[in-house]
Amino acid sequence: MTKLKSGDIATDLRDRVLGGEWAATKVVPNERALSLEYGVARNTIRRAVGVLVAEGLVSRHVGRGTLIGDSLPAAPPAGAKDLVQIIKNLAGTSPLDIMNIRLIIEPQAAAAAAANASASELAAIVEAHDRASATPVMEEFERWDTAFHHSIFAATRNDLLLNLNTILSIIRSQPRISGIRRRGFTEDTRLKTCTQHQAIVTALIARDTDSASEAMRQHLMARSRTLFGASIP
Amino acid sequence: MIQNTAQTEADLLAVMTSIAGSSPLDVMKVRMIVEPQAAAVAAANARESDIETIRHAHQMAVISVEKDAFEGWDGEFHKRIFESTRNDFLTTLHDILLAIRSRPQWIELKRKTFSPTRRALYCEEHAAILAAIEVRDAQGASESMRGHMVAVQRNMFGT
What we know:
The complex is a heterodimer of chains A (233) and B (159). Chain A has 233 residues and is mainly α. Chain A has eleven helices and three strands, in the order αβααββαααααααα. Chain B has helices spanning 2-19, 24-45, 48-63, 67-84, 88-101, 104-113, 116-134, 138-157. Chains A and B meet through helix 1, helix 4, helix 5 and helix 8 of A and helix 1, helix 2, helix 3, helix 4 and helix 5 of B.
């Protein structure tokens, strides 16, 4: 039989530690016991245990042996990042990351709105849609387009979701991002957007959560293709 | 341009102030939307070294029996999944959710619902999420994470 290497032993020890074999005492057997068990030199055991020490799974203590999860690099930077840093990170988000996050959140928001919207909230959504449809002027259309999406988030009755959409709107109003939209603005894309909005409105009024979600997803994917090209998922 | 940036940051600060007071249930619903998707994106986008960091956080959580240590690594597990998406907004979104959940009333809510049984259950669920990410199974990662979020919600709110 070929002798075990320290890497094999490290793997086995890791499995045994994680499997809870020594969970009661939280102590790994000493080098002498392990070298007998694995049939290798104590140096090999020391190297194997060293791997687990480096991983933070165990730590060596003079006089107490090798302890499991004792001096864990405990409560790793659990602390919340400070607000200033979060805001700086948000302000610099890339346009594509924004679109991808909208693809995650907005279809679900549309579904929640279909389930939760009151009659007056639905009316606000319809009004924003009608106003956006009625104006060929870019700035005015943009305002109602934004209002349309905002009113859907408002209808979810989830304040946090609404606030997240506000954050996205703020980032999207930065010139570096709004410029992308404006360069791509044509009457043709405006009409397509309005048709897609109509599908969302229809699903919302029908209280059809699946269709609302799907219509929103189709709308955002179409926008993503228009803004960033066909290659983007 | 400098003025624009300052205005953007001032606007963001105002929203963030409002966000700090989000209700636990609203936060849970947002996690229910975002975390499964983050797991799916991570399965597709993570580098092998990212997966290694997720695995490490999982292993540390498994051996951390004591409550604070476990919660630290539990949080780290989720954080590293978000970071593995390589979407800056998603990563920052996790920071935002974490900031809300670091407030005193949250810590109390978590303290009341912690138990060794739940810890063990969460570790099993984490193992399933990790396994799916390791084999780049986006749908499996998403479903496992959704199941985990449902369990977390049930434990915290009983629904």
